Amino acid sequence: MFETRVTEIFKIKYPIIQGALGYLSGPELVSAVSNAGGLGSLATAGISSATGLREEIRKTKSLTDKPFAVNFSFLPGRGLKHEETRDIIIEEGVPVVETIATGKIPEHILKPLKESGVKRIHKCSKVSHAMSAEKEGADAVAILGFGADGHPGLDEISHMVNVPKAVESLKIPIIMAGGIADARGFIAALSLGAEGVLLGTRFLTTKECPIHPNIRERLLQAQETDTVMVDVTHGVPSRRWRNKITLEALEAEKKGASLEEMIEFLSGERAAKALREGDVEGGCFGCGQVIGIIHEIVTVKEVIEGIINEASAIIERLRLLAQA
Ligand SMILES: Cc1cc2nc3c(=O)[nH]c(=O)nc-3n(C[C@H](O)[C@H](O)[C@H](O)COP(=O)(O)O)c2cc1C
Predict the structure, then answer these.
(1) Contact 44/19 with Cβ under 8 angstroms?
(2) CATH code, 22
(3) Fewer CB atoms inside 10 Å of the end CB: C or N, the chain?
(4) Residue 318 C-alpha to ligand 1 middle, in angstroms?
């Protein structure tokens, strides 16, 4: 069911991918996604040693025999050297990488990965960047819409335009990334020509995600308007949950704080601590607009099976509509 080039290339049952959740998508969450037929992606944010990364990968392998990805970020401020990450991925036989970058990814990183058979999903928000990724050998591109968490870009292009534009501009499969909570988003993505979906915020509120129950409960009450973009002035925009610390960060940005000064508010460690300890106002963490349509805490398996089962019901409804 729903077999596409994405299921074929990445050898997964359903074309549903969990985008990395820094400090959160560890072996338990990732293996739960992969075991449920999707593709989990191991976060590398917060891993500062080669041994740490190797251990996380090995633990994931011990929890699933299904394919999974490792997030390979080329954004500034990550602890591990790219060469080290590349070598560990190859040595450990990781089947897929989810890359994210602000510019060109060096050939000496990409070539050995490709030659070792590691498949690559490149995540970006601009169609022009997606085209470059295709030229650089990516196997699929996950294209982010403006409502997505993470780095949805400065162009403010919605999925309704970004996805069809990417589909008509590239030959490799397109994955619609962000803004998807359930079968409605899944079917919309397929209708726009995408061959898979990538979800982040939806997995943030699953039972397997290691966040404090206080945060989970508060997230369920959040509306689609409860996110804001920070670091826009520094050219590295990211969408975060609107809370006290995020509003302080915005205020500092307005007053001209430098990128380094913004770290005090936006640091991943600080966000991770708040998420773990249940300090609802104390960490500036990622969250997509889709939070406004997430109303329950369920297991990863329920998210994935829910999407697949309800998708068939939507198709049937549309079929009847077309006949009427
Ligand atoms: C809490 C959180 C942490 C994230 N951390 C990362 C990360 O470390 N690396 C990355 O490439 N994307 C990261 N993302 C982005 C997701 O992988 C994904 O691209 C995005 O959440 C999709 O948009 P959605 O949240 O609307 O589904 C994060 C998202 C969230 C919600």
Answers:
(1) no
(2) 3.20.20.70
(3) C
(4) 31
